[in-house]
Here is the input.
Amino acid sequence: MKYSYQELDDIDKAILSELQTDSSISNVELARRVSLSPPAVHARIKRLEELGFVRQYVALLDREKLGYDMLCLVNVTLQVHQMQTIDVFRSAIAQMPEVLECYFVTGEFDYLLKVAVRTRKELESFLMEKLTPIPGIARISTSIVLTEVKFSTGLPLD
Here is the structure.
């Protein structure tokens, strides 16, 4: 059975909101914030995980402090839209650690990639040695992010 957001009560939503702000919060502190007992909060978290509302817990790293000073948006157009070409492209992209996110989109391009590299040379290497050789690519257009105006992983849960 598939569950939807509408089936969550206000306490479930509050728990999810707190977890996406700080997933390292203690169970006791989370229980205090949502006005439930720690065992009840634990049971709800387990249920939310089992239902797939919580996919995983991660640490968000500071990209620039780790030397990844260049964030790029790369638009890719495929020559043909046959499943074999699409599968080859998607499989290749999934193996590239520089690609943080990949979206199949509507509009002028087929895919939008969010790519992090340390230097201009790494970007050139990524584009020329990894991306361009993928069979079936017709066009690549790259934009370098000058300023990250907003970065968020939190979904609005109201």
